[in-house]
Amino acid sequence: MMSTNSEYSTLNNKIILIAEDEPLISAYFKAVLNPYGVQIIWASNGKEAVTIFESRKDIDIILMDIRMPEMDGYEAIRQILKIDSTAKIIAQTAYATTEEIEKCFAAGCIGYISKPINSHELITLLNKHI
Question: What pTM value is reported for the model?
Fold first, then answer.
């Protein structure tokens, strides 16, 4: 198991784009990630996530909610990967069925995390892919 110091140094100064339309989940991400020194960029829907990703070349990883208004996560994933096929995207979903998980990987995600999100699992997953 990694110590907090090694986790901190791995995530410190990394830029994470979080696409999430639920304010309580956004607050949870902020509470969990802020102690690790990450910079969080927020998008409230898939369309906004794509626009932000297009305008920034320094995003290290994306946490993409699958079910959002205006543009769902799957479409946003497709558009982001058209912009940069090496983008690291982790799906976050409350519907962690085998079919949904397979759909996330088929869309191009490098990982997924199910809601409710466990803070240890989140930090472990981020450390694995950053």
Answer: 0.92
